[in-house]
Amino acid sequence: MEDLILSIMERAGQQMPELITIDEDYGQLMYDGNTDNYPVVFPCALFGNIELTWTTSGSIQQGKGTFLVRLAMDCYHDTQLGSGTEDWIRERLQMNGRLCRILHNYHHSRDISPLERIKSVDYTLQGPGNIKVYETTYAFEICDRSITTPL
After folding, report:
1. CA 150, CA 148: separation in Å to the nearest integer?
2. H-run or E-run covering 6
3. β-bridge pairing 21-24 and 60-74
């Protein structure tokens, strides 16, 4: 479990060299109103917000979990219909689709099930710049055999 997110980040970095920032999500896209920019370079992919629910059977714990991937891009082009630059919309959507295909069904190890995309949403950040975020939730199951029952 300890290296699941790092493994996923490495996979994204190897297959999507156009991503300038790939990092654990620790709030880089949160705007506090005091800065003129975000502490990342776009396009970026941020991974994290793991949530797990555990059950125990003997000395084995089974977990059902989710985590988020946030793909964020700056949008400084006029993309309204008829502007001649509508392809910027297509490019952003294609990049998000590629990242989803790279991660969906990715099988990290025998103790972690293949990743399953379960939710997608996109939104624009409130803050400096025109930042579009494509947020995808992935589900997985994990078996932790390292837990021991106290005597």
Report:
1. 6
2. helix 4-15
3. unpaired
Give me the residue label for tokens 């630059």. Answer: 85
Q: How far apart are CA 129 and CA 140, in angstroms?
A: 34
Tokens 């947020």 label which residue? 135
pLDDT digits (tens, 9 = 90+) for 33-78: 777 778 899 999 999 999 999 999 888 999 999 999 999 998 876 6
pTM as predicted: 0.88
Partnered with residue 139 across adjacent β-strands are 66, 116
Burial code (b: 16+ CB inside 10 Å, e: under 16) for 115-147 equals: beeeeeeeeebebeeebbbbbbbbbbebebeee
Q: Cβ distance 59 to 82 under 8 Å?
A: no
